Amino acid sequence: MTRHYNFCAGPAALPVAVLERARDELLDYRGRGLSVMEMSHRSAEFNEIAERAERDLRDLLAIPDNYRVLFLQGGATLQFAMLPYNLLGQGGTPNYIDTGIWSKKAIDEAKRLFSAHIAASSRDNGLSAVPRPEAIALSDDAAYLHYTGNETIGGLEFDYIPELPEDVPLVCDLSSSILSRPLDVSRFGVIYAGAQKNIGPAGLTVVILRDDLLERGRADMPSLFSYQAMSEAGSMVNTPPTYAWYLAGLVFQWLKNEVGGLAAMADINRRKAQKLYRAIDESQLYSNPIDPVNRSWMNVPFVLAEERLNAGFLEQAEQAGLLNLKGHRSVGGMRASLYNAVPEEGVEALIGFMREFERKNA
Ligand code: PMP
């Protein structure tokens, strides 16, 4: 069996130790004689798995007691709609920072349903830097401010957490950077993340929200949309994605017990990203357009100076066991996603390959 280095933006690499544990427990979960996939979500066994996962996530992120953690479905994309439904029950205008493709999708979804005020935008700098804090201009009746902590396609990451008036909750899509480093959860009203990058497999979405916000939902939404209904039912209004929840729990245990927590994870992630950006900056062939303070640790897009080399680059990378380096179809070029489960050796292998490819094509 050979495991290649997988730089996919999502669904993304999972830690080998997690996959091995899942394999070992696949047919017979800890002597129960059945797989987690075959358990009732109402069983004592699954309840223990679900509660343990939440506890471990709370430990990792030091989530304060007045925050609820929800394990939902529908991807981060459903959160684009659930947010306005849940936070606009008392009126007001949702505010957004526009930093690229994912924030724009969140804005478009809000606009389909309600309205949206763009409080700040990176469009005038070609999406190469996030707006500075002083550029954020809220509407008078702001119901919340939403931003995308890390733009997965653009490779643009916030280097600060916006400061808001106390009555305006801050909402953040952290799909591609949650758990990549420590986070002060108390600064946020709502954080959400699709699982398929740093949490686990696709099919699960984690929402972390301050409990006073549960009161703000509209009365006319489907129950599966309601944070309050989901919170009251322990995320089990209906059958949750049990196996994805279990795998997320294994990832949380790996982060706690094998990596040593998010500060240790951040050290590794910082080194991985710095090494790759340095290699890009030192080369004549590769380039990345993002302002250094906003360069994403998790998603590193880069282009080759000569487009005719793209196909050969991807083909030879794959032969070298370096998978999924093709950039998003909307922007082209290359992208290396360096999520938590991509080891430092994988990044070194990628850099070695890139240098050799440049030398051969000079
Ligand atoms: N937000 C961000 C930042 C993302 O990277 C993605 C997926 N790549 C999404 C939202 C959408 O996630 P999903 O496919 O889980 O709906």
UniProtKB/TrEMBL annotation:
<dbReference type="Pfam" id="PF00266">
    <property type="entry name" value="Aminotran_5"/>
</dbReference>
<comment type="subunit">
    <text>Homodimer.</text>
</comment>
<keyword id="KW-0963">Cytoplasm</keyword>
<feature type="binding site">
    <location>
        <position position="173"/>
    </location>
    <ligand>
        <name>pyridoxal 5'-phosphate</name>
    </ligand>
</feature>
<dbReference type="InterPro" id="IPR020578">
    <property type="entry name" value="Aminotrans_V_PyrdxlP_BS"/>
</dbReference>
<comment type="pathway">
    <text>Amino-acid biosynthesis; L-serine biosynthesis; L-serine from 3-phospho-D-glycerate: step 2/3.</text>
</comment>
<feature type="binding site">
    <location>
        <position position="42"/>
    </location>
    <ligand>
        <name>L-glutamate</name>
    </ligand>
</feature>
<dbReference type="InterPro" id="IPR022278">
    <property type="entry name" value="Pser_aminoTfrase"/>
</dbReference>
<dbReference type="GO" id="GO:0008615">
    <property type="term" value="P:pyridoxine biosynthetic process"/>
</dbReference>
<dbReference type="GO" id="GO:0030170">
    <property type="term" value="F:pyridoxal phosphate binding"/>
</dbReference>
<feature type="binding site">
    <location>
        <position position="152"/>
    </location>
    <ligand>
        <name>pyridoxal 5'-phosphate</name>
    </ligand>
</feature>
<comment type="pathway">
    <text>Cofactor biosynthesis; pyridoxine 5'-phosphate biosynthesis; pyridoxine 5'-phosphate from D-erythrose 4-phosphate: step 3/5.</text>
</comment>
<dbReference type="InterPro" id="IPR015421">
    <property type="entry name" value="PyrdxlP-dep_Trfase_major"/>
</dbReference>
<keyword id="KW-0663">Pyridoxal phosphate</keyword>
<dbReference type="GO" id="GO:0006564">
    <property type="term" value="P:L-serine biosynthetic process"/>
</dbReference>
<feature type="binding site">
    <location>
        <position position="102"/>
    </location>
    <ligand>
        <name>pyridoxal 5'-phosphate</name>
    </ligand>
</feature>
<comment type="function">
    <text>Catalyzes the reversible conversion of 3-phosphohydroxypyruvate to phosphoserine and of 3-hydroxy-2-oxo-4-phosphonooxybutanoate to phosphohydroxythreonine.</text>
</comment>
<dbReference type="InterPro" id="IPR000192">
    <property type="entry name" value="Aminotrans_V_dom"/>
</dbReference>
<keyword id="KW-0028">Amino-acid biosynthesis</keyword>
<keyword id="KW-0718">Serine biosynthesis</keyword>
<dbReference type="InterPro" id="IPR015422">
    <property type="entry name" value="PyrdxlP-dep_Trfase_small"/>
</dbReference>
<keyword id="KW-0664">Pyridoxine biosynthesis</keyword>
<dbReference type="InterPro" id="IPR015424">
    <property type="entry name" value="PyrdxlP-dep_Trfase"/>
</dbReference>
<keyword id="KW-0808">Transferase</keyword>
<feature type="binding site">
    <location>
        <begin position="238"/>
        <end position="239"/>
    </location>
    <ligand>
        <name>pyridoxal 5'-phosphate</name>
    </ligand>
</feature>
<protein>
    <recommendedName>
        <fullName>Phosphoserine aminotransferase</fullName>
        <ecNumber>2.6.1.52</ecNumber>
    </recommendedName>
</protein>
<feature type="modified residue" description="N6-(pyridoxal phosphate)lysine">
    <location>
        <position position="197"/>
    </location>
</feature>
<dbReference type="GO" id="GO:0005737">
    <property type="term" value="C:cytoplasm"/>
</dbReference>
<feature type="binding site">
    <location>
        <begin position="76"/>
        <end position="77"/>
    </location>
    <ligand>
        <name>pyridoxal 5'-phosphate</name>
    </ligand>
</feature>
<keyword id="KW-0032">Aminotransferase</keyword>
<feature type="binding site">
    <location>
        <position position="196"/>
    </location>
    <ligand>
        <name>pyridoxal 5'-phosphate</name>
    </ligand>
</feature>
<comment type="similarity">
    <text>Belongs to the class-V pyridoxal-phosphate-dependent aminotransferase family. SerC subfamily.</text>
</comment>
<feature type="domain" description="Aminotransferase class V">
    <location>
        <begin position="5"/>
        <end position="350"/>
    </location>
</feature>
<dbReference type="GO" id="GO:0004648">
    <property type="term" value="F:O-phospho-L-serine:2-oxoglutarate aminotransferase activity"/>
</dbReference>
